[in-house]
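Narrative of accomplishments. A recurring question from our advisory board has been how the design workflow behaves on a single, concrete structure rather than in aggregate. To address it, we present the structure tokens for one chain from the evaluation set, followed by the sequence designed for it. No filtering or post-editing was applied between the two.
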């Protein structure tokens, strides 16, 4: 099974907009990290694998 890759379109520090082909999703900042970490981790124009995205939200 191929892992989906998301491109970060925008990141406000509270929410990031991601796109993978025609599919889009909004990701809210997890409460256990700061806005600065969230922006750094999901910087605009970053490509991120689905598994890495899931790991960000695990405590």
């Amino acid at each position: 099974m191929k892992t989906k890759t998301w491109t970060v379109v925008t990141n406000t520090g509270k929410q990031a907009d991601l796109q993978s082909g025609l599919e889009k999703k909004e990701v809210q900042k997890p409460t256990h990290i700061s806005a600065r970490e969230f922006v750094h981790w999901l910087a605009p124009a970053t490509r991120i694998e689905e598994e890495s995205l899931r790991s960000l939200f695990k405590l």
